[in-house]
Amino acid sequence: MSLRWLILIIFDVFFALVALCTAAVVRLGYLEATTKLSDTSTYFIVVIFVIAILFSSHLMDTYDFDRNTRKREIFINTLLSAAASFFFLSIIYYIDPAIMLGRGILLLSIIFFAFLQYGWHVVFYLVGRHNPRFCRRVLVLGTGPLASQVGEFCSSHDRNFVLAGYASCNCNGASENERQSENIVVSHDLVVGSADDLMAAMLKSQADLIVVALSERRGVFPLRDVLRCKLNGMEVMDAPSFYELVHGKLMLEHITPSWIIFSTGFRRSIYFSLCKRYIDIVLSLAGLFLTLPFFPIIALAIKFDSPGPVFFKQIRVGNKEKMFNLYKFRTMCQDAEEKSGAIWAVKNDLRVTKLGSLFRKSRIDEIPQLYNVLKGDMSFVGPRPERPEFVEKLKQVIPYYSKRHFIKPGLTGWAQVRYPYGSSVEDAIEKLRYDLFYIKNLSPFLDTLIFFETIKVVLFGRGGQ
Questions:
Q1: Whether 105 contacts 27, CB under 8 Å
Q2: What is the dihedral angle through the alpha carbons of 269, 450, 67, 251, rounded to the nearest 10 degrees?
Q3: Contact 144/118 with Cβ under 8 angstroms?
Q4: pLDDT 10s digits, 27-57
Q5: C-alpha neighbours within 13 Å on the C-beta side of residue 300
Q6: d(Cα 206, Cα 216) in Å, to the nearest integer?
Q7: What is the pLDDT of residues 300-332, one digit of tens each?
Q8: In this predicted structure, what is the pLDDT of residue 219?
Q9: What is the pLDDT of residues 52-104, one digit of tens each?
Q10: How far is CA 187 from CA 64, 148, 361, 451, in A?
Q11: HSE-up of 14 (CA within 13 Å, CB side)?
Q12: In which region does residue 223 sit, left (phi positive, over 0), alpha (psi from -120 to 50) or beta (all else)?
């Protein structure tokens, strides 16, 4: 157990006690609450409450330092943790009503604790990450270009890592090309040891994590020494996994089919898929019910703005590359691609009407896609559905591009909230990094995070062109 984890839990226990006492005083009054809480038989109830709170927090990754680097992530984890606490404690109180302190105390104590936990974790995570004592020290195995790149990742502003140093690889037994690929390009002052005695380098640099960043592993990888470190309790990961952890996207140029096969993730249970579909139906019905009264107003506005139909229909590539008709409110002039053929929209695109520009920035044009979600062509969250003309072109130049079609496309997605609108092959590569990260880490937490990020994107009008 690390020091920062211990500090976090000790204060969570303290705040859980404060929340329970405050809720008891609010609900029962000071005299009755102090009488009940000072009774020794109440101690068992308090212990049950604290254990349920800590267990729920752990279950919802509230103590995962790599998943709590922003206020929004901390907020979502705290919210999910509070919901889980309420669920578990309700079951416990249902089984044994005798351990309840009083009606209403459960809900109030969880609300109070959620507020206290959120404030405390924001201070701890965001202040603590600037303190090297609370950062994870990374020893990079390798001194070549890839190792240098990993060293730069450690300097990212919003993550909890600090570079402890590099361990060089002597490349004995490697070919000339393999040796050249590991030429030292990092500062010699930062080389703290060699792969011949990786354990000593680890202890010297006081590192917590080894990142293997060899440009070419064949004939070079120090298997015995890495294995020794691993069996001594050190965490070891490769450069693509570290990149994913730091940036929230995949390192396409360094992943292989075997990396995809043996890495964690990419798993979708039937229960998760059913729940996701159920939520899609409920949300799309609710969205259509709330927005349908505005359709006539929007239709009139489009008709007054420019000649042409109200709705825009276009073929897009869906799940398993199945084609479907995507519906939107029209934002471009009629027959916009009659002469040019299929082209990406660009900034200040002349084809976009005055009203269309407003609709694109506010995402109003995408409201009819709720029908696509209801039909099952799309999900609320998933990769953006692309046009078949672009997909065929991108599949030829971008490895793994077709892998984004293993799930349903979405109204919003990880790439849409983390990267602005793209209109080039380079943009498509960057977006694919995020799309594959989403497919690999698909979970209720990630969908909730994307939902909150989408609200921010819509409010600030980011991404649309």
A1: yes
A2: 80
A3: no
A4: 888 888 788 777 777 888 888 888 888 888 8
A5: 4
A6: 26
A7: 999 998 898 999 999 999 999 999 999 999 999
A8: 67
A9: 888 888 877 788 776 666 777 788 888 888 888 888 888 888 888 777 766 67
A10: 32, 9, 45, 42
A11: 7
A12: alpha
Q: Which residues pair with 381 in a beta bridge?
A: 412
Give a three-class secondary structure readout of 10-56: HHHHHHHHHHHHHHHHHHHCHHHHHHHHHCCCHHHHHHHHHHHHHHH
Distances 404 to 256, 415, 416, 419 between C-alpha atoms, Å: 16, 11, 14, 16
Beta bridge partners, 379, equal 410
The pTM for the full model equals 0.75
Q: Is 72 exposed, middle or buried (0-12, 13-18, 19+ CB in 10 A)?
A: middle
In order of 57, 68, 183, 322, the CA distances from 169 in angstroms are: 41, 34, 9, 48
Q: Which residue has the tokens 């990880």?
A: 414
Note the pLDDT tens digit of each residue in 168-207: 886 555 565 655 556 678 888 888 888 888 889 888 888 8
The first and second tokens of residue 8, run together, are 């976090």
- Please state, in angstroms and rounded to a whole number, the distance separating the CA atoms of residues 290 and 401: 36
Give 215: exposed, middle or buried? Use CB within 10 Å, 0-12, 13-18, 19+.
Answer: buried
